[in-house]
Amino acid sequence: MQAAVFYAPHQPLKIEEYPIPKPATDEVLIKVSACGVCHTDLHYIDHGVPTFKNPPLILGHEISGTVAEIGSNVKNLKVNDRVLLPAVLTCGACEFCRTGRENICKTMIMFGNHIDGGYAEFVKAPAKDVFILPQEIPLEEGCIIADAISTPYHAVKNRAQVKPGDVVAVFGCGGVGINLVQLSHSCGATVIAIDIIDKKLDWAKQFGATYILNASKFPDIAKEIRKITNGGVDIAFEAIGNPTTMTSAYNSLRKGGRLCVVGYSDKDFLISSAKLMFFEMEIVGSLGCRPVDYPRLIEMARIGKIKVSPLVTHRFTLSEINSAFESLRKGEPLRAIVVMKATDFTD
């Protein structure tokens, strides 16, 4: 099969012939239809963040496709089923999985990090982790549900606990942030979208933001948000991974407000500990999505409660994958996908 292989940071991925993986008795082989292009991959390529599996490694963790082969013990799937793979596989047995927090599983396994991922014509996965994609959801565009939509879903529903009537600020309107906007709006919240790129703010308006603010036009964006909300927002999301915007997001909250950090950074950020205590503020982190939440999220997409296809603004072939990452570096796509044209599988 053809695959885009990661060998080392600061090098382009190489398109190579790679062995088709052989599924075990409890696994399935997936013929990949599409795989989302994510900033997480850029952390490995551009910033030297190490992968758990030493290269060579096939990156990519937002995967949709069809079942090409099933292991002998698999009962829940059949060949040609349309499927979505979650970005992270969980053990189901550790203390976190057993208490409903599978997304922070002790032994989690991530596609394109611990094991080979979806920038390839085929990938294998445990059958227990695979979700059926209904016909109403386009197979290729549906791949982004695996992370770009599921991660914000967990943040909005489980960590920030957005409720109807809440006033929410979303700092950063990229691929994850735009879905924080969309999902908060779908919960009945009033959403303020903040970014420094007008194009992204225009997208945020299309996906449900009531107010849009270009942070570069204000000396203190948190002060401006407190001004227009008469005291601050109930909930603020930080989806960039920038310590400065984390502090701004925290400072935009009203008394008793909640900051939900979704963006990744390896640096600390500053807050007022007096404000945290005296005003009973809350700060929560949010990582990925629990497997139990995927069926509800998929159903929301199936009935059109949330938009999927309009999120995908750029499409690339596997041979164009390095161009896809260059486009991502420039901030051009809202969400980009790599579309596969795999040859028919023969055992």
Overview of the structural elements:
This protein has 347 residues and is of the alpha/beta class. It folds into 2 domains: 2-147 and 289-339, Quinone Oxidoreductase, Chain A, domain 1 (Alpha-Beta Complex), CATH 3.90.180; 150-285, NAD(P)-binding Rossmann-like Domain (Rossmann fold, 3-Layer(aba) Sandwich). It has helices spanning 39-46, 95-98, 150-159, 177-186, 198-206, 221-228, 243-251, 273-278, 294-302, 321-329, and strands at 2-6, 14-17, 27-37, 57-58, 63-70, 82-85, 88-89, 109-110, 122-126, 131-132, 167-171, 190-195, 211-214, 233-238, 253-261, 282-285, 314-317, 336-339. Strands 3, 5, 6, 9, 10, 17 and 18 form a 7-stranded mixed β-sheet that branches. A 6-stranded parallel β-sheet has the order 13-12-11-14-15-16, sandwiched between helices. Strands 2-1-4 form a 3-stranded antiparallel β-sheet, with no helix packed on it. Helix 5 (198-206) links the parallel strand 12 and strand 13 (211-214). Helix 3 (150-159) packs across helix 4 (177-186). The longest helix has 10 residues, at 150-159. The model has no long low-confidence stretch (mean pLDDT 95).
